Fold this protein.
Amino acid sequence: MSNTKSTQESQDSQGSRNSPNTSKTNDNQSAKSRPSPMEVLRQARGQLAELTGMEAESVSSFEQTEEGWALEVEVLELERVPDTMSLMASYQVELDAEGQLTGYRRVRRYERGRSDARRPGGR
């Protein structure tokens, strides 16, 4: 019985020594599986296009958040002639840490040829 106890203690101590290595391996795997910023941009544009049926023309803002990623994407909503009269929209897009779209909403519409109204303070 003492041999069984010694064997069990030996296995337990080996398991506890291996667990830090196992967690490091898991951390490395999760870091490798985490998408790069460019992959996140591509995924966001593709997912938004699939949901709305409109292709993204540009990404005007992009930042990492505690929950994942936040982007503002410019989309052509209504094509007109001349092109400067086409109707554009800005969409706020949120993605999780893996780059999967979790939500979006249109935050503004504007004609392509129009600039933003000046705000006080030059902003």
Summary: The mean pLDDT is 80. Residues 2-33 form the longest helix (32 residues).
